[in-house]
Amino acid sequence: MIKTGDTSYVWGAGLPTGIKMTVSLETLAANKQASQYVDPNQKVDYNCVPWNVDSSLFTPPSNIKFTDMTSLLAPKGTITGTKEQTKTDASSVCSQITDETAKNACENALKQNGQ
Description:
Blueprint: E1 2-4, E2 7-10, E3 17-22, H1 25-30, H2 32-35, E4 65-68, H3 83-95, H4 100-112
Parallel strand pairs: 3-4
Antiparallel strand pairs: 1-2, 2-3
Helix pairs in contact: 3-4
């Protein structure tokens, strides 16, 4: 995983696609479902040590295609329309994923969330 600004890039070994999400603290605060898992105001304990920065480690790999999943974290109130239209909009996000394993994971996550 690499995070630059508010954008996170996540990928795994052997997968041709990854996930890209742009999420600000304001977006997390507005998303009730995400706030169940992440408290951006919670203090954390960490220990920093000196390190010579290798900027290449903070650049997403060019051989991985990243699918932008930002819309999944949009506050529920931002999608308008009937429940069926909302289901179609949400499932269309998963249909953009070319890797079958990642696509199935996306569809399962939406099913578990009732979309």
